[in-house]
Amino acid sequence: MTSPLALDAPAGAFDALPPTAFAPVAEAPAALHWRLANFNRRRLLPALPGPHWRSELADEIAARTEEREFLDAERRAVAEQALQAPLRADAFVAWFEALRQTGPGQGDPLFPWLAQHATLHQMRWFIAQEAAGEAGFDDLVALAQLRLPVRPKLEMARNYWDEMGRGKEVGMHGPMLALTAQELDIAPRIETTVWESLALANLMLGLAASRAHAYHAIGALGAIELTAPTRVGLVGEGLRRLGVSSAGRRYFHLHASIDVAHSAAWNSEVIAPLVAAEPRCARAIAEGALMRLAAGARCFARYRREFGLDGSGQAERGPGLVPGGCHHALIHCAATALAP
Residue 141 — φ and ψ, nearest 5°? Predict the structure, then answer.
């Protein structure tokens, strides 16, 4: 029997690509991700049609070509590990959930250090960097759920409704993070954000905005829900230690608990039925999850270097921070921060 998910899939949509099929990204990453971050900022803003649409379209094609080359390179980096993922739904979900312990970036010593030792200056810098590393989770879910089957679509709708505060502005998750940024007096600028954080945001939006990467986006979003709670909890502890108000910490305390339930529902209601209906999409979901976790691990390693920490979270030098202090980019106030 033909899988219902395969009916609309173009020929070769689920074919595994050999490593040689991926286009390399040869350019210095900082320049690339600065351009992509600026493209993505313009990309989602509501606008009006103008007379220069041909040149704007040409610019978009150039930017999306760079984006695709970047995504291909990120896929290439995790392709071998993703081949280990089972294709049977229950076994795949078990493999996916094990990423909470075994995935890239899990157990990083940065987070206990933030909870126990970071100064307010260092925490401000960290929050700005992490917020820059995620496009708004609500918007990413909205993009990723397009034309999915009913059961996964309904769960993603429930997730989105939670992000929207269940219709109450006071409960919206994005503005909660904006309150944290306001209290910490963070002044955002893309050009002073480390490229690893920009790459994380570019990865997530690139996956969610491309229907060719729809299953990758589902894996990446599921990885956020799976691995966020411990990290946001530790950051919340650090903020409390530093005297940040309960309102300024609310985003982190909320996600330390709600994402546990979100993850269980995502795995059972989104991932499991998709893999059961079309086992070939398991590979793409696995790649997306690993891409997201690897991008988070890359950020954590960069943050530790900026703070003068080694791989165990011990200081290699005095308290560090990159030049420019705390004035770094908070690109999307609706960001889902701190998830690897």
Answer: -65, -45
Domain that holds residue 88: 30-37+55-307
CATH classification at residue 200: 1.20.910.10
Q: Which run of H or E residues covers position 173?
A: helix 173-183
Number of domains in the chain: 1
pTM here is 0.86
In a domain, 21, yes or no: no
Measured CA to CA, the distance from residue 103 to residue 294 in angstroms comes to 8
Q: State how far the Cα of 31 lies from the Cα of 313, in Å rounded to an integer.
A: 29
Query: What pLDDT tens digit does each residue of the chain (340 aa) get?
Result: 333 344 344 444 444 444 333 344 445 899 999 999 999 999 999 999 999 999 999 999 999 999 999 999 999 999 999 999 999 999 999 999 999 999 999 999 999 999 999 999 999 999 999 877 557 899 999 999 999 999 999 999 999 999 999 999 989 998 888 889 899 998 767 877 999 999 999 999 999 999 999 999 999 999 999 999 999 999 999 999 999 999 999 999 888 888 898 999 999 999 999 999 999 999 999 999 999 999 999 999 999 999 999 877 676 654 455 433 332 333 333 333 333 4
Would 227 be classed as within a structural domain? Answer: yes
C-alpha–C-alpha distance, residues 55 and 290, integer Å:
36
Cα 155 off chain centre by: 19
